């Protein structure tokens, strides 16, 4: 029997880059932006999971919001605050609401930069 390879945050980051670069042309612009938000949020969640699992094993069933609150206990407060703020923005960006415009390219590009920086900082 083989063991599954660990999930990496790099895959969702690469997917986000492909979406932003317009490689997936069958999706609408808004759909690509929302998809990018989802990929970035996934990358951030993977890295937060890794950091917390290394510090406190057994947190896999904890909610995402709780994990972001616990992050303050294992990384610098500013990094944890940035991670929580980005996660919140990405969560809003990837959900469709009839009464709201989707995220713009510039917003999503800025979130991609922030996600990449946080993924590098959140080393377990």
Topology (elements, then pairings):
Elements (H helix, E strand, L loop, with lengths): L9 H11 L8 H27 L8 H7 L6 H18 L10 H17 L3
What is the CA-atom radius of gyration, in angstroms? Answer: 15 Å
Number of helical segments with 4 or more residues:
5
N-to-C terminal Cα separation, in Å? 27 Å
Summarize the amount of helix as a percent range.
55-70%
Biggest sheet overview? none
Mean pLDDT: 88
Which word captures the global form? elongated
Low-confidence stretches: 1-5
* SS-derived structural category: mainly alpha
Order of helices and strands: HHHHH
Number of strands: 0
Strand content: under 5%
What are its keywords?
single chain, 124 residues
Description of the molecule:
The chain has helices at residues 10-20, 29-55, 64-70, 77-94, 105-121. It has 124 residues and is mainly alpha-helical. Helix 1 runs antiparallel to helix 2, helix 1 packs antiparallel against helix 5 (105-121) and helix 2 (29-55) packs parallel to helix 5 (105-121).
């Amino acid at each position: 029997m083989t063991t599954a390879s660990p999930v990496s945050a790099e895959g969702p980051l690469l997917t986000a880059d492909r979406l932003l670069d317009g490689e997936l042309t069958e999706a609408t612009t808004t759909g690509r932006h929302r998809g990018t938000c989802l990929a970035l949020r996934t990358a951030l969640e993977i890295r937060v999971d890794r950091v917390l699992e290394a510090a406190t094993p057994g947190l896999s069933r904890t909610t995402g919001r709780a994990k972001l609150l616990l992050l303050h206990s294992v990384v610098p407060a500013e990094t944890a605050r940035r991670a929580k703020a980005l996660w919140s923005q990405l969560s809003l960006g990837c959900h469709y609401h009839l009464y709201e415009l989707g995220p713009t390219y510039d917003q999503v590009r800025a979130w991609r930069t922030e996600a990449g920086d946080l993924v590098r900082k959140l080393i377990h």
